[in-house]
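Translate structure to sequence.
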């Protein structure tokens, strides 16, 4: 571990001992509070674990450095992904979370590092909801994501995420064995009601041993 794995974060305990945890990963300029309402919309009872990205871009928190729009500093991305995985493992033990029921929910920059977690730490996440994600990097050897459920929601007129990058990410994840649901929305980079509903229904089906 290159650095202190500690992250400023919020932890909201589950309702009624629900064993599911949503790892909430915000977009550029967000923080640990941003996605708490979305997390609750997606699952009323799950625990919520929401770290703040440690990289600052003109004062805006992010989870890894970028060189320009959509061009990532891959060395930093890989290092930060390992660091975030370390935090998730520590938090899992500290808060007594069930790693078999840990789902990432990421938006934009947060979705990109969630995709990177899937590629570099297969098995860490039980599944992921990726909202406006792109290919974080091209993995040299495909990870084993056999059966890992992933919900990928993309906007047809997104100015920041080229549709080819979403399609390529879906392909990479499928080749690694993940069960990818690709949900194309008519809108842009912002998240709409329809996909929140879509993600909520998908998550309810993806959580093992549904309540
Ligand atoms: C990224 O930098 O991860 C993507 O371009 C999306 C974003 O701006 O957060």
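Result:
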């Amino acid at each position: 571990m290159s650095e202190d794995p500690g992250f400023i974060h919020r932890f909201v305990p589950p309702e009624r001992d629900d064993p599911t945890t949503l790892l909430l990963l915000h977009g550029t300029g967000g923080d640990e509070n941003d996605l708490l309402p979305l997390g609750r919309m997606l699952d009323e009872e799950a625990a919520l674990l929401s770290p703040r990205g440690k990289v600052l871009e003109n004062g805006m928190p992010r989870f890894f450095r970028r060189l320009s729009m959509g061009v990532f500093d891959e060395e930093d991305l890989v290092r930060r992904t390992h660091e975030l995985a370390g935090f998730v493992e520590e938090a899992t033990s500290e808060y007594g979370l069930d790693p078999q029921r840990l789902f990432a929910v990421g938006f934009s920059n947060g979705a990109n590092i969630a995709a990177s977690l899937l590629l570099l730490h297969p098995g860490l996440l039980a599944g992921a909801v990726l909202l406006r994600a792109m290919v974080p990097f091209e993995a040299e050897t495909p990870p084993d994501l056999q059966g890992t459920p992933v919900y990928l929601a993309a906007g047809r007129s997104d100015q920041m995420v080229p549709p080819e990058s979403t399609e390529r990410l879906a392909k990479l994840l499928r080749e690694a064995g993940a069960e990818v649901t690709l949900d194309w929305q008519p809108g842009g980079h912002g998240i709409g009601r329809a996909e929140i509903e879509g993600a909520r229904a998908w998550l309810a089906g993806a959580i093992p041993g549904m309540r």
